TrEMBL record:
Transmembrane parts of this sequence: 35-52, 72-96, 108-128, 140-157, 163-185
Keyword Transmembrane: yes
Highest taxon above the source species: Bacteria
Name listed for the protein in its UniProt record: Uncharacterized protein
Keywords for this protein: Membrane, Transmembrane, Transmembrane helix
Species for this entry: Roseateles chitinivorans
Lineage of the species this protein comes from: Bacteria, Pseudomonadati, Pseudomonadota, Betaproteobacteria, Burkholderiales
């Protein structure tokens, strides 16, 4: 458990350093590049905060029992960061479609972040009510957004060449890898937790009561058994996810 926490702290420092390196000396050009960099900066900072004070929202699980570990506070920060990341994905597809001369795909690209924005509502419902079922729906919406992204990138790859085609193909592999992970790991995990909660008489909270609970209640634990299932998604979230966010700032503008 200690090694994992140390790794998360190291990732937080590394990721901030990488973002600063790209911001100061990286190939960030044009309005799109600067917008990507700004959105990425929000994502990097929030992920650093959540890496230093990890938590599992519905279980109210925290490592460090301080007010900054508040589930409500962490989820609020995560919502802002995830919307920024979703906008980055849409902008990424939009940029590649512009280079490929595909205006319809440019417009369709903005459906990608819409999936993720809608997912935030289901996420908040699950966090406040303690219902894992809507957490599974949230994951399904993220998978839907990445699936649509892969479709659009496929269109771009079929109508382009050179680095645009290559980057589109890389994006397809990344998007479909994420979808496969969500379908085989995330959604089944939340479904199992939902069924376990139902079987054990889980009491679901009203939204107002859930907001108070999420703000005040924390369950501190340093046991690896309590964390290992969620470490499977937290670790790539705070590493690969951040690196993808930073990399998108380096995509050439139009």
């Amino acid at each position: 458990m200690r090694s994992w926490c140390q790794a998360l702290r190291a990732l937080a420092v590394l990721n901030i350093g990488l973002w600063l390196a790209v911001a100061l000396a990286g190939p960030v050009v044009g309005v799109h590049g600067r917008l990507q960099l700004g959105l990425s900066g929000v994502y990097v900072l929030v992920c650093a905060y959540r890496s230093l004070l990890p938590r599992v929202d519905l279980e109210r699980l925290v490592v460090v029992d301080i007010r900054l570990s508040s589930i409500f506070l962490g989820r609020t920060a995560a919502t802002v960061a995830e919307i920024c990341f979703a906008l980055q994905l849409g902008l990424f597809v939009h940029q590649l479609a512009a280079h490929a001369g595909l205006p319809l795909v440019q417009s369709a690209a903005w459906a990608v972040p819409m999936f993720m924005v809608v997912a935030q509502g289901f996420c908040w419902h699950s966090v406040l009510t303690l219902n894992h079922l809507t957490q599974a729906v949230e994951s399904a919406l993220w998978a839907g957004g990445f699936s649509w992204m892969a479709v659009l990138l496929g269109v771009i790859a079929s109508n382009s060449g050179g680095w645009v085609q290559a980057l589109s193909l890389v994006g397809i592999v990344g998007a479909m890898s994420f979808v496969a992970y969500v379908v085989t790991v995330d959604m089944p995990m939340y479904w199992r937790r939902y069924r376990h909660g139902r079987a054990s008489g889980q009491v679901y909270l009203r939204l107002d009561a859930g907001a108070r609970d999420a703000w005040h209640r924390r369950v501190p634990s340093g046991s690896w058994d309590a964390w290992k299932a969620d470490a499977l998604w937290l670790t790539p979230y705070f590493s690969v996810g951040v690196w993808v966010s930073i990399a998108m700032a380096c995509v050439p503008g139009v």
